[in-house]
Amino acid sequence: MRSLLFSSLLIFSAGAFAQGSWTQKANIPPSGRAEATGFSIGTKGYVTLGIGSSLLTDTWEYDPSNDTWTQKANFPGAGRTSPASFVIGSKGYVGTGSTYNDFWEFDPAGNTWTQKANFGGSGREGALGFAVNGKGYMGFGGNYLNDLWEYDPVGDTWTQKANLPASGRYHAVGFGIGNYGYVATGFGGSFYNDCWQFDPVANSWTQKANYPGVARDRAVTFVINGTAYVGIGWSGSTPQDFYSFDPSNNSWTAVASFSGVGRYNSISFAIGNYGYAGAGVNNLNDFWQFTPATVSVGDPLLNSSLTLFPNPTQGELNVSFSLSKDAVFEISVYDMNGNKVQTLGANAERSSGEHHLSADLSGLSAGTYFVRISGENYSVDRKVVLVK
Questions:
Q1: Which residues pair with 113 in a beta bridge?
Q2: Strand 242-246 relative to strand 227-231: parallel, antiparallel, unpaired?
Q3: Residue 234 bridge partners (DSSP)
Q4: d(CA 275, CA 271)
Q5: How far is Cα 239 from Cα 258, in angstroms, rounded to an integer?
Q6: What is the largest CA-CA distance in the chain?
Q7: Under 8 Å CB-to-CB from 43, ≥6 apart: which residues?
Q8: What does the pLDDT look like over 53-79, one tens digit per residue?
Q9: What is the value of pTM for the model shown?
Q10: Distance CA 67, CA 59 (A)
Q11: Who contacts 226 (Cβ-Cβ below 8 Å, separation ≥6)?
């Protein structure tokens, strides 16, 4: 199997926001909820479960191209609070929550839920999830647990991995970047601000730079082009600050604070160049889009969700984006020496609106490449690692 791992989006043009900005979008229907879970697949985001006036099992799909929500198939298991989720390729996976350990796969193409092998650990709420290189990881939560379990979607099996070598915790955040998973913040008798990197190959943990905000749990996180963002949550109060984490230099940087009211037990995900967060305590359903500093005002891709998927893939690379105005550009693949090795889309004018193309990279040797969208005044590079 070949897999394409994507990171490092760079946009070079004028007028970028200094620390990013938040914009309110359409509310999450039908009403307020907290302790739900959110994830994104391709160009869409999804929210399911949680609690409003009662336990909820509805599932909603968000389309950023027209800022609308569409109801999808209900989660078929029991309603619950604080489940965990991750995404592998074109499927979303949701499990745990309340006292449950059942585990389900969501296929947006068929709008179907399929029950898979139960989570390998005990039933719990407040667990976390992330995915790395085609495997999913869940753990922590419950009564201050520190276990971690790996899910293989091919064999539908769970394998216990190395415990976190630190205090157990619930309501921490987890995210995957490149070849590693990361866990930060949480509560285990006190609030934490430590951050840890998990190496699935070595099955080992390494402590990284502490989260610089006040220690907290019930924060949200999303990853945009190889950079993680973590913020809001509960610390005895409801901070609105947000910080970005760059794993390449192990550093945290303050970004624009969340523009909605302070909250916790919210949902979050990223689509293309943008992050999203919303809902939460108390019975909130507002929804906000974060634009990082790397998205430029002058760029015709400003209002797009540049997305490459599936990941992992067996060779086909799908590229989707939308333009806020007509633009002339080329889409090509370059090797690490700067040589163009494949053209995905010839230099031509493309009209505003949504665009989709597919390409086969199977003729290239294993290694690192860049998919580049280049126009007159800007260039967008996304790193692609082809593994055979």
A1: 106
A2: antiparallel
A3: 217
A4: 6
A5: 9
A6: 59
A7: 63, 64, 65, 271, 272, 305, 307, 320
A8: 999 999 999 999 999 999 999 999 999
A9: 0.75
A10: 16
A11: 7, 8, 9, 177, 178, 247, 248, 383
